[in-house]
Write a structure and sequence with these properties.
The complex is a heterodimer of chains A (114) and B (113). With 114 residues, chain A is mainly β. Helices cover 0% and strands 50% of the residues of chain A. In chain A, strands 2, 5, 6, 10, 11 and 12 form a six-stranded mixed sheet that branches. Chain B is mainly beta and 113 residues long. In chain B, the strands form two sheets. In chain B, strands 2, 4, 5, 6, 9, 10 and 11 form a seven-stranded mixed sheet that branches. In chain B, strand 9 and strand 10 form a beta hairpin. The radius of gyration of chain B is 13 Å and the shape is globular. The chains are: A mainly beta (114), B mainly beta (113). Chains A and B meet through strand 5, strand 6 and strand 10 of A and strand 4, strand 5, strand 9 and strand 10 of B.
Chain lengths: 114, 113
Amino acid sequence: AQSVSQHNHHVILSEAASLELGCNYSYGGTVNLFWYVQYPGQHLQLLLKYFSGDPLVKGIKGFEAEFIKSKFSFNLRKPSVQWSDTAEYFCAVNIYNQGGKLIFGQGTELSVKP
Amino acid sequence: DVKVTQSSRYLVKRTGEKVFLECVQDMDHENMFWYRQDPGLGLRLIYFSYDVKMKEKGDIPEGYSVSREKKERFSLILESASTNQTSMYLCASSLLTAPYEQYFGPGTRLTVT
């Protein structure tokens, strides 16, 4: 079965540090890729998505992600985190021709110390 | 703005009770989904529906059923609630076409005692 793996379960950073959260998926064909964020007490919202085209995708709040097909990866990055980035981050994959289902990773909890 | 609403934010039920969780979306989306979210396990798909009266099992359908009588409304039913169904339940919706970006409701935290 296809799966999505997020390597880091809990990341703790100081403000202004750089962030990279890993995401790998296990499917060799065409995919659509997503990063969602869940701030404390709020609903999941989309940070960014890759559908086609430029593999470097920019999202909201200064986040970006790079799709590397050869590595089956879609890592999330931000050059300088803020305390307000404290949240849980989920990577998700949609498999082409399997309809609208998303397969989610386990989530990474990010804590940013002021 | 897409809006997905869920009937309750918090719910406490007793073991054996029948529980209804309701979800409504206002963007005319064809797809609707029910997930449960548990720490360390991410989101796991319970059921989804791509049209009225149509449903498909997700990864963890046991102990749950669903109903979609109208396009905008998707209900999750726990026929006989058990303590291991204590969880956060999330509803989402999306279009029937790629890239299938899903929009989520605020969630219902269900506690079964």
